[in-house]
Write a structure and sequence with these properties.
Layout lengths: L1 H11 L4 H13 L3 H19 L5 H10 L7 H13 L1 H20 L6 H29 L15 H7 L4 E9 L2 E7 L4 E5 L3 H15 L10 H5 L2 H14 L11 E5 L13 E4 L2 E4 H4 L1 E4 L19 E4 L9 H14 L14 H4 L5 E4 L3 E2 L21 H4 L9 E4 L2 E2 L20 H12 L4 E5 L5 H14 L5 H12 L33 E5 L23
Parallel strand pairs: 1-4, 4-7, 8-9, 9-11, 10-12, 11-13
Antiparallel strand pairs: 1-2, 2-3, 5-6, 13-14
Helix pairs in contact: 2-3, 4-7, 5-6, 6-7, 9-11, 13-17, 17-18
């Protein structure tokens, strides 16, 4: 088994970045834009697989056995049926698991008597044991000669993606190569390819923009001078030109911008990029909805139908203002009221965090944590477990079911230091890789909307933003809800005593608003769009390994 594992690992983790770069360059010379975009997407998928156990082989077995039926191609459904026939014990465990999960979701209530608590504890143990047995069987299958297909992230040919784009939608794919950062723009009727140039120049422009917004270190506070400064508008226009010059992007006529970031673009506050419109400077989010996805195949509705919301939760309180529990509780009340079917998680948890998360439909985490480039899987989406049982690396295991909506306003990344990592740290992981892997991992576990901060603001302004967002989600798409939240925030008066990142003079009378991009531009909205179909209806076939479109 050890020999099999090493053979699989070495074959699936062979470095191929240079090969993809040469492939893309050759297609560019032949003017085959569509094929080049397809290959860039394949390269991103490969990066995700390389970061997983056995180069993604374990994930491919899980995906084949556990992906929602309506997302599988006919070939993948055939593979699944074949595996379940050859390994009937897995089919039995899977059927038993469905029953256990349904019972858990039904019987988990905010208040239970002692009898109900004992029954629920037994269900949690049985569900955990079921998943453990299935995961062990998946590990055995991964080292055998059974076939499987990589289902996630999905691959959708660029010609099909472009056919799904609606008037007013624009999809921009960035891809880092040894020859510079490439950009690909698609609308429903046109496409453009351009080279943004060397990363070093973009890094300088990005660092100036982030610092002009207010990111000098993770705890510095903004004063009156910084809050009234418009320097960020100047440096932001420079950064916009660095990224989009030659793209033919027209923000004025655009209704929605969907971006597939790469490299440093993961740290770019796209929503705050200044646009000169009719002689006036406005921000991109004022003109257009903005969302990102880690790969092109996730851009347009590769989703399962929304589940009926039965359980949502709020975890932690570190970014909530107040020194006393009663003060923090008072500030949290409005956000709690906006969360449907809110339930408190028991302490200690009845199972590991990823297992408990299978019974949640939405989760807001108000504690702070770091997402490190050197250890991208070493943070906990649900920070209540013991040791590493709740770290992101465990969320890619079974089950492939988790909260469909996740909100993390307390995350720290190197964006809060101007986008520059410490020189003392290992730079073996490329810039942005931690956010790419976080997005892919959480979406592979069922998330369809992720709101993740790149720098922590905290305080009452953050709570107001989150309340607006979760309140709007049932009535609008995530991109629409977030665009509205930003517009509301721009008119929100700041209360300095409730804002840990604001430091005003005691005699200040004219209080500023949260219109400064420091308060809203740091959030990364990762969202795969609205589901294309209702439950039980298959979308167009998604091919698992297409040849690049010509």
């Amino acid at each position: 088994l050890v020999g099999s594992e090493m053979c699989i690992r070495d074959s699936l983790k062979a470095p191929l970045d240079d090969s993809y770069d040469r492939w893309i360059a050759a297609l560019g010379e032949r003017k085959e834009k569509a094929a080049a975009i397809d290959v860039a997407d394949l390269a991103k998928r490969r990066r995700f697989f390389n970061a997983l156990a056995l180069g993604g082989r374990l994930a491919s077995i899980r995906d084949t056995l556990e992906s929602p039926e309506n997302t599988l191609s006919p070939a993948s459904r055939g593979l699944r049926n074949d595996l379940l026939m050859r390994y009937p014990e897995y089919a039995d465990l899977s059927k038993e698991g469905e029953t256990l999960l349904q019972q858990l979701r039904t019987q988990w209530q905010p208040t239970l008597d002692k009898g109900g608590e004992k029954t629920l504890d037994k269900l949690w143990r049985a569900w955990s044991d079921n998943l453990h047995e299935r995961e062990n069987l998946v590990a055995r299958l991964s080292l055998s000669r059974v076939p499987s297909e990589f289902q996630f992230p999905p691959t959708v040919p660029v010609v099909e993606v472009q056919s799904r784009l609606q008037p007013g939608q624009a999809l921009v794919v960035f891809h880092e190569t040894s020859n510079g950062l490439l950009g690909f723009l698609m609308t429903d009727s046109a496409s453009t390819v351009w080279n943004c140039g060397p990363t070093a120049a973009i890094a300088r422009d990005l660092s100036v923009f982030l610092r002009d917004i207010g990111n000098n270190d993770r705890n510095s506070a903004l004063d009156e001078k910084q809050l009234s400064s418009t320097k960020w508008q100047e440096s932001g226009q420079v950064l916009f030109q660095s990224l989009f010059e030659g793209s033919s992007l027209d923000p004025i006529s655009m209704k929605e911008l969907i971006v597939v970031p790469d490299g440093l673009v993961w740290y770019v506050p796209l929503a705050a990029l200044p646009i000169n419109s009719e002689g006036q400077v406005t921000t991109l989010t004022t003109l257009s909805k903005v969302r990102v996805v880690p790969t092109m195949g996730l851009a347009l509705g590769y989703t399962v139908p929304w589940r009926r919301v039965q359980h949502t939760t709020i975890v932690g309180s570190e970014i909530v203002p107040g020194d006393k529990d009663e003060d923090r509780a008072a500030h949290l009340a409005d956000l709690q009221a906006a969360m449907p079917h809110l339930i408190d998680l028991p302490t200690p948890l009845p199972a590991s965090p990823p297992v408990v998360a299978t019974a949640l439909d939405a989760m807001v985490v108000l504690d702070e944590f770091d997402i490190e480039r050197t250890e991208p899987f070493a943070w906990s989406p649900l920070p209540l477990g013991r040791g590493d049982e709740g770290q992101l690396g465990a969320w890619v295991h079974l089950p492939r079911i988790g909260p469909q909506r996740l909100v993390f306003p307390g995350a720290h990344t190197i964006a809060e230091k101007g986008g520059k990592a410490s020189r003392r740290r290992d730079d073996s992981m490329p810039p942005g890789s931690e956010l790419f892997l976080a997005s892919c991992s959480l979406m592979s576990s069922g998330a369809q909307t992720i709101l993740l901060s790149r720098w922590r603001v905290g305080g009452q302004s953050t709570l107001e933003l989150l309340r607006e967002f979760v309140q709007e989600l049932p009535r609008a798409s995530a991109a629409e809800a977030w665009q509205r939240c930003i517009e509301v925030a721009k008119e929100l008066p700041l209360e300095p005593a409730l804002e840990p990142r604001v430091k005003l003079k005691p005699d200040t009378t004219a209080l500023p608003t949260a219109g400064h991009p420091f308060f809203w531009a740091g959030y990364l909205l990762v969202d795969s769009g609205e589901p294309l179909v209702e439950e039980g209806v298959r979308p167009p076939d998604i091919k698992s390994a297409p040849k690049p479109a010509q």
